[in-house]
Design goal:
The chain has a five-stranded mixed sheet, with helices on both faces. Helix 3 (97-107) crosses helix 4 (112-141). The protein is globular. By secondary structure, the chain is of the alpha/beta class. The chain contains four helices and five strands, in the order E-E-E-H-E-H-E-H-H. The chain has one domain (3-139): YqgF/RNase H-like domain (Nucleotidyltransferase, domain 5, 2-Layer Sandwich), CATH 3.30.420.
């Protein structure tokens, strides 16, 4: 099952994609935000092209775990996307995703302008990989089917 990961920001949306088995996440692209209609069209085109079956959206909770203004905007975006796709759209805590993405890019030797251009897609991959790992662990420990 292919899963799409999104890191929704004010100016850009980082996009990541899982492999067909839903095991590994990798960065895909960065969408420069224009308006909601245009942004959704770009995401829907990616969903159609790659036959995505689920979307994971990073949720930027406040330090105390509450839903702040930015998280509320992301939830509204997510709800609109879910209505348009009619597929599962879930959240994943994006705590330190940009930090993790920055470290991964630095370790790969990516610097300066290239790093700024790729950070949002890498953050989306970080968010998506966290979700995929959590779901794999949950399935491993779910004995209710036995």
């Amino acid at each position: 099952m292919r899963v799409l990961g999104l890191d929704v920001g004010e100016r850009r949306i980082g996009v990541a994609m899982s492999d067909p088995s839903g095991t590994l996440a990798s960065s895909h692209t960065v969408i420069e935000r224009k308006d909601l209609t245009t942004d959704l069209k770009r995401i829907l085109a990616i969903i159609g092209e790659f036959e995505v079956q689920q979307v994971v959206v990073g949720l930027p909770r406040s330090l105390d775990g509450s839903i702040g203004p930015q998280a509320q905007k992301v939830l509204e975006f997510m709800e609109t996307l879910q209505r348009r796709t009619r597929m599962p759209v879930v959240t994943q805590d994006e705590w330190l995703s940009t930090v993790g993405a920055g470290r991964a890019l630095a370790a790969a030797g990516v610097r300066g302008k290239q790093r700024r251009e790729r950070i949002d897609a890498e953050a989306a991959a970080f968010i998506l990989q966290g979700y995929l790992d959590r779901e794999r662990a949950r399935r491993t420990w779910d004995f209710s089917d036995s």
